[in-house]
Structure formats: structure tokens, C-alpha cells
Write a structure and sequence with these properties.
mainly alpha, elongated, MgtC_SapB_SrpB_YhiD_N
């Protein structure tokens, strides 16, 4: 039995466009993941690639099932992904919570934010906004790398309890 692209409900051009957007989502997630992996963080290359690709796939669903998409369907998909990925990020924070000398120490906030941003980048790529997804990836990489350098120049005041 031979299955043609046309028999799957889409033209070859549509399949190539969809494939490109999904591949782009995975690659952009990979760029963020490499940065986190090099920093020795728990959520590295594979995690960020999967988050970005998964977010892209969740956005493909309402745009591909029916040609007469209800305007709220895409909005609900975006909201669902943002919320769900927020829970994934929360797990990253809780997993790294430690106590030293009896005082709680919170770690993993940047990693959680990177996972959340990666999901947004996947959704943007899936929507076909490849320019915005590339700019967003570059800005995310700058924030993860360059902004850390800037933090050294910002004075920190801690409340003593």
C-alpha cells in the first residue's frame, strides 16, 4: 500500500512548509539547550529541543484539523502550552531547591524561564514567523550569556534577617 502526501489531506508544499516550521522549532530549542547544557544545567539540549518542538506541535493541531478554525482555538492552545510549560519550569525550580545553614536557597529560576521562552519560540516558529523566532532566539541567548556579565556591575542589597 502506497501513501501519497496528497492522500494525507495536504499538498506537498504544505507538508514542506510544516516540516520546515517544526524543524526550525527543534533547532531553535536546540540553540537554547546547548547554552544551558554548557552551563551544566539539568535542562539541556534534548529538553529544550523537545519543549520547543512540543509547543510547535500543539499549535499545529488547531491550525491543521479544520479549515474553519474558531478564532479562540489558537488562543486556547497558546494559553495551554504556556501554562503547561510553566509547570515544567516549576519542577526545575523545586528540583534544585536546597537549604544551606538553615536558610532556603532558590535555584533554577533562569532555567525555568529559559524553558518557558523556548516553548514560546517553538510556537512562533510553528506559526511561520521565522524572523521573529530567530530574533527571539538571539535575544534569549544574549540574555542567558551577556546579561550574566552585566549582573557583575549591579550592586546587590540583601536584607539581613
Amino acid at each position: 500500500m502506497t501513501v501519497s502526501v496528497a492522500s494525507l489531506g495536504a499538498s506537498a508544499g504544505e507538508w514542506w512548509g510544516l516540516s520546515w516550521r517544526l524543524i526550525l522549532a527543534a533547532l531553535l530549542g536546540g540553540a537554547i539547550g546547548v547554552n544551558r547544557q554548557m552551563a551544566g544545567k539539568a535542562g539541556g539540549l534534548r529538553t529544550h529541543m523537545l519543549v520547543s518542538l512540543g509547543a510547535a506541535l500543539f499549535l499545529v493541531i488547531p491550525t491543521s484539523i479544520d479549515a474553519t478554525i474558531h478564532p479562540d482555538a489558537i488562543s486556547r492552545s497558546i494559553q495551554g502550552v504556556a501554562t503547561g510549560v510553566g509547570f515544567l519550569g516549576a519542577g526545575e525550580i523545586v528540583q534544585q531547591a536546597r537549604t544551606k545553614s538553615g536558610k532556603p536557597e532558590v535555584k533554577g529560576l533562569t532555567s525555568a524561564a529559559a524553558i518557558w521562552a523556548t516553548a514560546a519560540l517553538g510556537m512562533i516558529a510553528s506559526a511561520g514567523l521565522w524572523q521573529a523566532s530567530l530574533i527571539g532566539t538571539l535575544l534569549t541567548l544574549f540574555i542567558l550569556g551577556g546579561a550574566k556579565w552585566l549582573e557583575a556591575f549591579i550592586p546587590v542589597r540583601r536584607k539581613e534577617e
